[in-house]
């Protein structure tokens, strides 16, 4: 049996699967309409050592760990991220309450809270004390431990990307691992005690389990997929969307084999396997569904500071624009090429790769939008890009062997563009890692404020500033506008401290309730200001040209700050009496 013109098969060359195709691979089905389960990328070079991709993976994992390490200690002992406290405090609370059930249902974070609690217990055991007692004395090490666990999940996602990519070609795996390791938003969120990277890792594992099911549609592979989906739900509620690729591959196998009885058995039993797994992982998510429903209803609205007020198409485009901005034109083209190849090949094993699509459509229905919610969507984008890059490189290498000079020149330019895109990803990652190791404006400003007598007790402040590192405060609760003048409700307040992490949201808020207060504050005398390099949010820096990244790193190493812009204004002195 041969494959002619298969995706990545070397520009239409004929490949003997028994000799060179990945284990279990057959042809891509040519122009037949039948849904198949063949690989999209036939390995046409057997001279390369089989160990080479594994060696590359190990190198990528080591490099990925290195760039994530600076984030483990980011900002500590100050807590600069608002969501980490929720996870760590409840993990400690489980130890205090002598229970293994979290008390919150917010995201719900149950998997992360439980594993972090186990890690904290182990740390307390080896440190010779109770973790909750040590936490009350100094919580720094516990936040570092929780972040370290997230790093491990991030590295797990890299390894899983390699496993998934390897199903589509020998070099697709290393390329997918590279993209997962050095995609800057992944790096930026891989060292935080937050659930987004955990969910990304688990959904990538669901993709892998679906591929296994397509290869061998057994109870074992189905159960693994259901358990992984339950773990994803215990991490973040949208993890339930991981069930869709499982259903899709069951149907795909039915179309291929015609075994209706097996398909019915698996479709009927899969929900029971999922619920049973969820009962084992976190039973309160099932037994206390009222709390779960309350969170789902509460978080689906748009009543949050900075909500965009966009329609559904606008919210969907928000994530497309964000993902495209980080990828750059070359990886966007590679993603579209990978999409074209998968659609053209009609290969069933490409179906699980699209797990990010229902996630994108589902999350876009929520009234709020956050950049970090796009991370699971990137699974699809990066895996398709890996297929596109791998196939493009194969074909470019073939073109470079052409006897026509202009064809060789175009192939060289195309190869250079792909390499430059990879360098840009590395540079964006280097900027992110450097930012984590750079002083934050909130930390730098605090000693100066204290030295100049500007403290919590005599100041009005909103949030994400030296006095409230990672929380939100509303100015109307502390100030009022009288005859166009800003007056503190407490006459002892003499200063206003504001942060761009909040006033940028306020100016973009469709409800202008808070905007008049910030406009009035800006008319006050400016006492001091701390401005970060590269803008107020490091997630807005990429995709940067390599030279721009080098410039930013040079500025950071020379003493430039990161974080929000912090501004301090003097309130007018109130007349006596």
Outline the structure in words:
The protein is globular and about 80 Å long. By secondary structure, the chain is mainly alpha-helical. The model is unreliable at 1-48 and 535-544 (pLDDT under 50). Helix 4 (110-127) packs across helix 6 (140-166) and helix 18 runs parallel beside helix 22. The chain has two domains: 51-71 and 149-435, no CATH class; 441-570, no CATH class. The strands form three sheets. A four-stranded mixed sheet has the order 3-6-8-7. A two-stranded antiparallel ribbon has the order 1-2. It has a two-stranded antiparallel ribbon with strand order 4-5. Helices cover 58% and strands 5% of the residues.
Secondary structure elements and their pairing?
Elements: E1 3-4, E2 14-15, H1 17-20, H2 51-72, H3 84-96, H4 110-127, H5 131-137, H6 140-166, H7 172-182, H8 184-189, H9 196-215, H10 219-235, H11 243-257, H12 260-281, H13 284-287, H14 289-299, H15 312-345, H16 356-363, H17 377-400, H18 405-436, H19 441-451, E3 459-461, E4 479-482, E5 485-488, E6 495-499, H20 500-508, H21 515-521, E7 526-530, H22 546-557, E8 566-570
Parallel strand pairs: 3-6
Antiparallel strand pairs: 1-2, 4-5, 6-8, 7-8
